[in-house]
Design goal:
Elements: E1 5-6, H1 8-12, H2 17-27, E2 34-42, E3 45-54, E4 58-66, E5 78-85, E6 92-96, H3 98-117, E7 124-128, H4 134-144, E8 149-153, H5 157-166, E9 170-172, H6 176-181, E10 185-188, E11 207-210, H7 223-227, E12 230-233, H8 236-239, H9 244-252, E13 279-282, H10 287-302
Helix pairs in contact: 2-3, 2-10, 3-4, 3-10
Length: about 300
């Protein structure tokens, strides 16, 4: 049997955001994934290897190289490869474009939380960071919040302008604090090692979605933001211990382990208690999410007309 090789364009045309988040929710009803992560660092550069095994879905291996200096050379900052295997016999099931899996997994991971934690009447969505993930986040949040207006803020204004030129309904924010204060949802995908978003700026009823921090020295919000929020994560296994966004305030005693309400294996706890509470979700990713996303992509590819 010929092994499917699914390109970005071919796969991208087959997928939808609501369907993916439903598939992620179903994936978390299966036996808990066995995962293994390794990180290698050279200065600001990272090699991340992630593998996962879920009974009934298969096995996935994803290697990602993250080189923040690449855009200055006209190259993508994140590269790598994804393979999907059968859990029945270990044979190769598919080769799927790395950037296809990453785009849909990253934004879909955050959207699953937002569909449960953000206020349904959210109408103002701020994207912080105009990098690789920003277009995917705009598409994902547009699917779940079709009446919302979007604003983008980026440290380098020219990059925000370039993104807005590609997305007609996207406005560029001049001032980050003002943009945060007026947003219903803030989704943040940056490479920042210093907090960009201050807890004093947050308003009752907001939902904060944090994607960018993946290293021990990275943070996108300050201690006050965490202290003011009910905190959720996609996976305790992939967010605790090595991601600075959560680990630094835990070590400082700003928050305690009990302040992390739930991960996706307790998805029924992803609820908003009051309209005015601030919810905060840390998107840590993980190979199990790459596996669930890859399986969804392969299923859609196999069922295409």
């Amino acid at each position: 049997m010929t092994v499917p090789i699914i390109s970005f364009d071919e796969g991208d045309a087959l997928l939808d955001w609501i369907g993916l988040t439903d598939a992620l929710a179903e994936g978390h009803k299966r036996p808990k994934a066995e995962i293994a992560d390794t990180f290698l660092y050279r200065g600001s550069d990272t090699l991340l290897n992630r593998a996962a095994w879920i009974d009934g879905l298969g096995l996935a291996v994803k290697s990602a190289t993250i080189f923040p200096g690449n855009p200055a050379q006209g190259l993508a900052s994140v590269n790598g490869g994804v393979t999907l295997y059968s859990d029945r016999d270990g044979t190769l099931a598919a080769l799927i474009d790395f950037h296809l899996v990453t785009k849909w997994k990253t934004a879909g991971d955050s959207l699953l939380a937002a569909r449960r934690l953000a206020r349904p009447d959210s109408r103002a969505i701020l994207i912080v960071g105009a990098g690789t993930q920003a277009k995917g986040l705009h598409a994902a949040y547009s699917a779940a919040f079709p009446e919302a207006g979007f604003t983008v803020w980026n440290r380098t204004r020219a990059n925000a302008d370039a993104l807005a030129a590609q997305i007609p309904d996207l406005r560029v924010a001049e001032d980050l604090e003002a943009a945060v204060r007026t947003a219903d949802i803030v989704t943040c995908a940056t490479m920042s090692t210093e907090p960009l978003i201050r807890g004093d700026w947050l308003q009752p009823g907001q939902h904060i979605d944090l994607i960018g921090a993946y290293r021990p020295d990275m943070r996108e919000v300050d201690d006050t933001a965490l202290a003011r929020s009910r905190i959720f994560v996609d996976s305790f296994d992939t967010t605790l211990g090595h991601i600075g966004e959560i680990e630094i305030p835990l070590q400082k005693g700003v928050i305690g382990r009990d302040d992390l309400v739930a991960d996706y294996y307790a998805l029924d706890r992803f609820t908003r208690q009051t309209p005015r509470e601030i919810t905060l979700f840390k998107n840590g990713g993980g190979a199990h999410l790459d596996l669930m996303t890859s399986r969804y992509i392969l299923d859609r590819w196999q069922s295409r007309a």
